Amino acid sequence: MGLILPKESLPEYLLEISKSLPVYAPVESEGVVKFGMYSWGDKLEFDYETTTMPPKFLFLPHGERLLEFRGDRMEESAADGRFVVFMNIIDAQALSILDEAFAGKFKDNYYFRRRESSIVAAIQNNVRMKNSFCDELDQKNRERFDLLLIDRGDCYLLEAKTQKGAALLKSGFVSKAAKKEKPKSKRKSKKLNIQKISSFLDKGPEQGMWHALADECFACGICAYVCPICHCFDVEDTVTLGASGSRCRNWDSCMLADFAAVAGGGNFRSRRHERIHNWYHHKFSRAVSERGRPDCVGCGRCITFCPAKIRIHDRIRECEEAK
After folding, report:
1. Where are the alpha helices (DSSP H) in 49-123?
2. Which residues share a beta bridge with 85?
3. How far is Cα 191 from Cα 14, in angstroms, rounded to an integer?
């Protein structure tokens, strides 16, 4: 017998949690849905089709101060406190890919101090995110969250995945279900052939499609900034004449012209078509080689917010079909 949370009790349930931990959730304001710290009266939008930014900023903040120094003394920035965040299961799967990326040979402690102290609640519903192609990708075993909320119409069926998730079930707003719910059938779509896509991408940036795409793409980097997985960053040291300063980490994008620039005026990818190819290659070939699957969950934000109206999904299919 499962546990349920009536949808009408959702605001009060989040308010109850927020008395002990900050709660972040998708909220709607003036027609725009974004992740923000929940306050009573906010318009919750658990059925969001997209958000202006993915929830990665909670774990990988833009403009993050890593440390400060004065003379020979150095002090790391204090870790953010614990929090709870509710997100679509697609965004939760993306977060698990970031876990894999930052847990590599050199573990990123700045990322994991937030990740390990937070509680992630994933929402599973029948809402298809705008321009999404998530059902064409296999994300099995990439569900590393603490609590699952399964939409059952007038309520959510709750399923704890970890002890942290189980702690969120200890609420007067959560009750036992009258009967066991049967899972609904999932949408079936033609899966992307990742092997074929990777093989084409490995041929390099001089294929005709990359030159053609360079004529369309603004190389503005929006696709990377709104992606829930892209995690390129730049590190900048600021030093004063008084021998003190700080080190900050800022988001960056391999689409930008100076991303691969080095001292002496060199640039490993000075041409736009090279940078475009590199973005696709990293996601659908290099990541596959390194961690077994692409750095993509098909959320569709890269399509939704592209100012050049490029349908990235269609370009991925072109890679699959290319000879």
Report:
1. 89-102, 109-115
2. 24, 120
3. 37
Cα–Cα distance measured from residue 212 to residue 197, given in angstroms and rounded to the nearest whole number: 18
Please say whether the beta carbons of 319 and 212 come within 8 A.
no
pTM above 0.85, yes or no: yes
Which tokens in the block code for residue 223? Answer: 């696709």
Condensed to tens digits (0 to 9), the pLDDT of residues 64-103 reads: 999 998 888 888 877 677 899 999 999 999 999 999 999 9
**Closest listed residue to residue 191, CA positions, set 110, 44, 103, 296:** 296
Note the pLDDT tens digit of each residue in 231-281: 999 999 999 888 899 999 999 999 999 999 998 989 999 999 999 999 999
Q: Name the residue type at position 215.
A: D
List C-alpha distances in Å: 272 to 226, 251, 257, 287, 288. Answer: 20, 20, 7, 21, 24
In this structure, which amino acid lies at residue 322? A
Helix (H) or strand (E) holding 14: helix 10-18
Q: How far apart are the first and last CA of the chain?
A: 52
